[in-house]
Amino acid sequence: YCRQYADYKGYCVHKVFKDSGISGGQADRKGVVSLLKFLKENKEKRYVCLVDDVSRLARDIRIHLDLREAIDSFGAILESPAMTFGVDADGRYFENMQALSAMHHREKNAEQTKKRQQGRIINGYWPFPAILGYEHQRIEGHGKVMVPKEPLASIIREALQSYASGVFETQAQVTQFFQSQPEFPKNRYGKVTHEATNRILRKITYAGYIDPPKHWGIELRKGKHEGLISLETYERNQERLNGKSKTIVQSNIADQFPLR
Question: Is the peptide bond before 148 cis (omega within 30 degrees of 0)?
Fold first, then answer.
């Protein structure tokens, strides 16, 4: 749409900035930051910024006003195929009302999404992105349901059960176990962090339960997904995590030492 408008106006498209899948309610979007940096470095050329719609610039009135001021300060001209950005009081009023409408639409969508998620949780379904070791599958009569994803599910199950039984005496050994598994995801440094291990050990979702965000006021409930471990195993892990005992970390937990 913007390219057709540029052709109609006789503009040469010099650069395209995109923010795919990111909320317009965020000010520090990568594309927006790159756009402002580009305009700042090219003040003397007085570029025209084309946006498909006012809502593509921002979906928050405060962010819109800040971006509008920044673009103006760099000497750029803001245009859109869908509307005219006015420079007088009436034009500014209409523009700001459009930005306010976009913000209202974003907030309304967020409210409706939250209500749908709350409804799914009440019925025992995990409405958020699948946790590590699971994937979402659409099942007739249920919608999207989390199901174990191999081989990660088996790796996590073994780690949780081994920690509960004392095969792994410390969280560090659990981390070492994860680190030794080629299929287990690592961070950008090729490592599994102790924080990642702790999150897995403390997540009751692996026991087949749904733990809603605390501020939603929804109680813990049994989930429709298959747990990787029993509730008893989860509770045993929490007892160990919250205990005061200290154990010397064994550096070698290879197969030739099965009793460890």
Answer: no
Burial of 102 (0-12, 13-18, 19+ CB in 10 A): buried
Is residue 58 exposed (0-12), middle (13-18) or buried (19+ Cβ within 10 Å)? Answer: buried
pTM score: 0.62
Q: Which residue has the tokens 């420079």?
A: 87
Q: Which long-range contacts (CB under 8 A, 24 or more apart) does 207-216 make?
A: 207/231, 207/233, 207/234, 210/121, 210/124, 210/125, 210/126, 212/118, 212/121, 216/118, 216/121
pLDDT in tens, 159-187: 999 999 999 999 999 999 999 999 999 99
pLDDT tens digits along 216-228: 888 889 999 999 9
Where residue 257 falls (left for φ over 0; alpha for ψ -120 to 50; beta otherwise) is beta
Q: Which one-letter DSSP state was computed for residue 124?
A: T
Cβ atoms of residues 53 and 83 within 8 Å: yes
